[in-house]
TrEMBL record:
Gene3D superfamilies: Hydantoin permease (1.10.4160.10). One of its GO terms (cellular component) is plasma membrane. This is Permease for cytosine/purines uracil thiamine allantoin. The keyword Transmembrane applies. The keyword Membrane applies. It is a multi-pass membrane protein. Keywords: Membrane, Transmembrane, Transmembrane helix. InterPro entries: CodB (IPR030191), Pur-cyt_permease (IPR001248).
Length: 428
């Protein structure tokens, strides 16, 4: 009789930790709309606005739209399988890494994931501060130093990350209508000039393959961390549909619609274009909210990985510490040196997702996180990860390629090796 209150207290404590160390209970799972709002909201920010303008500027609006749709379909496929795995196992990415790579191998995986995500958080708030500062100067003529914007906003970002998937979902529910209102306004203002916009030739700076790679690379880390959100969805098919719908439908719409006003007024991103059209303030609000949810998602998943790596520390303490590290990176402006490292690190992350998906689908889900078999290393999984990473590197340097996209090649090779070895390895 005494165990029931104890179990209830434990679950409440884990809920406060966003189930960083446990499987999500069935009663805490919801519908696939949860993951849709999180993923779709993450697309409504400055990276997508800049990328949309770059695609249209290089390939023209029609060519850019084709590249956007192709890259989005690739991402939708990868993210939906990843989200399906999270829903089926009810595990975070960090717990899945223990199941897949063993307790020792998972330590390296979690550190790489955390380093990448916390690093991107620092880059995001640095770019956000600089962009918002420039937008305010253009609208008002007054210069606000970027740190006076990025540092306070990092507190709001950390607050949402501490609230977990529910906080990200609610922010996405507010952001998506606002973003599409601004995008719709920009397209509507451009309608009288649409013939001229469609006739603009592309610069050819990016070829079609490189443009598709840019779209995939824009959210490939997000596709990898989908188990962190999918575990909160009751039906695996619903989790897959939520992620696929957000990326296959919302992402191409954002990329194409955000490019149209810029092509009309000759600006390189939506925010600058809307300022020129006299709608800078609402565009700035969308910019801030888009960066808010994107950076919060990075901080949240990075915090989950660190919480599993250092279980003695409280999840919210880890979030606060990670936010502080990101702020220091932003203030020191080391992001300009850190980005190439993060991009290189991104080659190693997609194969992790592929190996974990194969491993999770080939094994029956454990009853709880404590029943995961205590294996120090799973060499077959590590081999598949290494093979996928090597394939991504070879594609990046144009040595040899399957699809022409580094992230896709790394996933295909890692998944194939993991699937083959899953039938033969002794540590199943």
């Amino acid at each position: 009789m005494a165990s029931a209150p104890s179990d209830a207290n434990h679950l409440r404590a884990e809920a406060a930790q966003s189930f960083a160390h446990e499987l999500v209970p069935l009663e805490d799972q919801g519908s696939g709309w949860r993951i849709f709002f999180i993923v779709a909201g993450s697309q409504c920010g400055l990276p997508a606005f800049l990328l949309g303008a770059q695609l249209a500027g290089s390939l023209g609006l029609i060519g850019g739209a084709r590249a956007a749709i192709t890259g989005a379909l690739v991402l939708a496929t990868l993210a939906s399988v990843s989200a399906y795995t999270g829903s089926r196992t009810r595990m975070s990415l960090a717990i899945l890494s223990t199941l897949t790579f063993g307790s020792k191998g998972a330590q390296l995986v979690r550190l790489l994931i955390a380093l990448s995500l916390v690093g991107w958080f620092g880059v995001a708030i640095s770019v956000l501060g600089a962009t918002a500062s420039g937008a305010i100067a253009d609208m008002t003529g007054h210069l606000v130093a970027p740190p006076f914007l990025s540092v306070p906003l990092s507190l709001a970002i950390a607050w949402v990350a501490m609230r977990g998937a529910q906080g990200l979902e609610r922010l996405g529910m507010v952001l998506i209508p606002l973003a599409f209102a601004i995008l719709g306004l920009g397209v509507w203002l451009s309608v009288p000039h649409m013939g001229q916009i469609l006739s603009l030739p592309g610069t050819g700076h990016l070829g079609f393959g490189a443009a598709v790679s840019s779209v995939v690379g824009d959210y490939i880390v997000g596709a990898v961390i989908q188990p962190d959100y999918g575990r909160f969805v009751r039906r695996p098919a619903g989790a897959a549909a939520g992620a696929a719908g957000a990326l296959a439908v919302v992402l191409p719409l954002v990329l194409v619609a955000s490019a149209v006003p810029g092509l009309m007024v000759g600006k390189d991103n939506l925010i600058a274009a809307m300022i020129a059209l006299g709608f800078g303030l609402p565009a700035l609000v969308v910019l801030l909210m888009g960066a808010w949810i994107d950076a919060s998602a990075c901080l949240y998943s990075g915090g989950l990985s660190l919480a599993n790596q250092f279980p003695r520390f409280d999840f919210r303490t880890i979030i606060a510490g990670s936010a502080l590290v990101g702020v220091v990176l932003a203030l020191a402006r080391v992001d300009t040196l850190f980005v190439p490292f993060l991009v290189a690190l991104g080659v190693a992350l997609p194969p992790i997702a592929a190996v974990q998906v194969v491993s999770a689908l080939r094994r029956p889900p454990p009853a709880d996180a404590h029943t995961i078999e205590a294996v120090a290393l799973r060499p077959a999984a590590l081999l598949a990860w290494a093979a996928g990473t090597l394939a991504g590197v070879l594609t990046s340097y144009e040595v040899i390629s399957i699809s022409g996209i580094a992230a896709v090649d790394s996933v295909l090779v890692a998944g194939a090796v993991a699937l083959v070895t899953s039938f033969t390895r002794s540590d199943r």
